[in-house]
Design goal:
CATH architecture of the domain at 16-193 and 224-254 and 290-306 and 338-347: 3-Layer(aba) Sandwich
CATH class of the domain at 16-193 and 224-254 and 290-306 and 338-347: Alpha Beta
Shape: globular
CATH superfamily of the domain at 16-193 and 224-254 and 290-306 and 338-347: NAD(P)-binding Rossmann-like Domain
Largest sheet: 7 strands, parallel
Oligomer: single chain
Number of strands: 14
Radius of gyration: 20 Å
């Protein structure tokens, strides 16, 4: 990686924020939210560069400066500027991808996260914000999980988040604060749309099939959070002055916590009464958890989730219907299902077996 010199930036944007993984589903919404307040520099491998729902929105989610670079090749010391905060979004970002690419999941989600954090601490960065997940609670029973409760990660993805938290906590110090945001399941419209998320999947099913087919028995509990509310919580983490060296915090809300079947029924009703079907042959999904968000409510009063559920369903539907994309058989789509995208790029010899771009 060549040295990247930041010669100048808008003096009105006093804080400099480095977003690692800025060009994905969450990152694009985050950049749009932050760039009016902060100087934003983004680094991304750009695996999903073509997964844009509306091409005319590209300018909206471009940071002030960006670098197309795999996280595993990054040395942030060569950026020649010291960010006020680093946001680590880069990840193999769900269970199916984690199952397919287990080794790479632990590399990107944990090993290289820690490598970047060590570089950041050495160069004098004062804050490191890590995108973790409520999925670390796994099979949690009926009790709402607080941050200090026992965790039961069931997948490589969830285990990678736990391992990162453990190592980042050890690395944190008075001069290097770490905030780990344990996000509920992401939902809602983003220019880099994903349909391998339960909320988005149900809306897509309503549009294309006029019914929602639930792949599980519908009984597992899931907390959800709109991607815009995720951006707001990251904004909070940038500004928050922490007395502790390390904070792990559940991010979401009770209003957006449902059983899978309940969520499907809400989406179906909002979309005009489409049918809901449960796969009777499905195996029970052990990933079931409800989460206590009281610490988030206490610390983040001005940054609480505010997106409306029904409006979010309608907006996602509107954005999808207003695009030129074909959503038929979307669950096998190389454009909207992240695992399918990676497999497609490998089949076209663009990515190698370790998900590095072929030059």
């Amino acid at each position: 990686m060549e040295n990247v010199v930041i010669k100048s930036f808008n003096n009105k944007l006093k804080k400099k924020v480095l977003i690692i993984g800025h060009a994905g589903y969450v990152g694009t919404v985050l950049v749009d939210h932050l760039k009016k307040k902060y100087f934003t520099f983004g680094i991304d491998a750009n695996w999903f560069n073509e997964n844009v729902l509306h091409q005319n929105t590209k300018k909206d989610f471009q940071p002030h400066k960006s670098l197309s670079q795999d996280i595993r090749k990054i040395n942030i010391n060569r950026l020649n500027f010291i960010p006020d905060a680093i946001i680590y979004l880069a990840a193999i970002s769900n269970d199916p991808m984690g199952n397919k690419f287990a080794k790479i999941t632990h590399e990107i989600n944990t090993s290289f996260c820690l490598k970047v954090a060590k570089q950041a601490k050495k160069m004098g960065v004062s804050k490191f914000i890590f995108a973790s997940s409520c999925s670390i609670y796994g099979s949690a029973g009926n009790s709402k999980k607080k941050e200090n409760h026992k965790i039961q990660p069931l997948t490589d993805y969830a285990k990678s988040k736990v391992n990162s938290e453990i190592k980042l906590k050890k690395l944190s110090s008075n001069n290097f604060k770490v905030i780990s945001l344990r996000f509920a399941t992401a939902a809602g419209y983003s220019p880099k749309l994903r349909l391998d998320l339960v909320f988005n999947d149900f809306v897509a099913n309503s549009i294309t099939n006029k019914k929602i087919l639930i792949l599980s028995d519908g009984k597992p509990w899931r907390p959800l959070i709109h991607v815009k509310d995720m951006a707001r919580s990251i904004n909070w983490a940038i500004e928050f002055i922490s007395l502790k060296n390390f904070i792990a915090i559940n991010v979401g809300s009770d209003k957006w916590t449902f059983t899978i079947k309940k969520l499907a029924n809400i989406v179906a009703k909002t979309m005009g009464g489409v049918k809901v079907e449960v796969n009777k042959n499905s195996q029970p999904d052990k990933r079931s958890y409800t989460v206590d968000f009281s610490l988030f409510k206490e610390l983040c009063k001005k940054y609480q989730p505010k997106e409306d559920l029904e409006k979010s369903i309608k907006l996602l539907s509107k954005k999808m219907l207003g695009s030129k994309a074909n959503f038929k058989d979307f669950r096998n789509s190389e454009k909207f299902i992240r695992l399918k995208t990676l497999i497609h790029l490998q089949s076209k010899k663009k990515l190698n077996k370790n998900l590095y771009w072929k030059i």
